[in-house]
């Protein structure tokens, strides 16, 4: 009996601990389709279709129009021409509604790249649920992925600070481009 009680307590204690929140380098990226916005206009985003054109930088951010997320969007907007020269598509992902994403795509993303809806299924597939004090916040964690054309994750950076996401994803895309030559 004691053994079962201890096992139950251990399951409760360890079950509430936050898990490592991201997929690993080398993992197959889960394919999905969702609604998105670019330059204030709604469109359908399909990861498989985007990968057919080149690598994809999929970056999850917690909430549109918060300070860190706006600054990160500005940084990705400034770097969009470099990503484009390397054949990469940048897509920001959050669970904001489509009306908010349309506004954010124009104001913060400066019409340079798309933002898309991270549905609960996408959040779970990419393991980017933001958990604080053992509770789901309803937001996505700040995690960036670089996915190569074969659908393999080649770079992951998970950090609530927005500061290194653009430079690290750009370096990974450059590395992919050099491998292709």
From TrEMBL:
Enzyme class, first EC level, given as a word: oxidoreductase
Catalytic reaction equation(s): a hydroperoxide + [thioredoxin]-dithiol = an alcohol + [thioredoxin]-disulfide + H2O
Keyword Disulfide bond annotated: yes
Segments forming domain Thioredoxin: 23-178
Entry keywords, A to Z: Antioxidant, Disulfide bond, Oxidoreductase, Peroxidase, Redox-active center, Signal
PROSITE patterns: THIOREDOXIN_2 (PS51352)
InterPro entries according to UniProt: AhpC/TSA, Peroxiredoxin_BCP/PrxQ, Thioredoxin-like_sf, Thioredoxin_domain
Keyword Oxidoreductase: yes
Gene3D superfamilies noted in UniProt: Glutaredoxin
Top-level division of the source organism's lineage: Bacteria
UniProt signal peptide: 1-21
Primary role: Thiol-specific peroxidase that catalyzes the reduction of hydrogen peroxide and organic hydroperoxides to water and alcohols, respectively. Plays a role in cell protection against oxidative stress by detoxifying peroxides and as sensor of hydrogen peroxide-mediated signaling events.
Family: Belongs to the peroxiredoxin family. BCP/PrxQ subfamily.
Name of the molecule in the record: thioredoxin-dependent peroxiredoxin
Organism: Tsuneonella flava
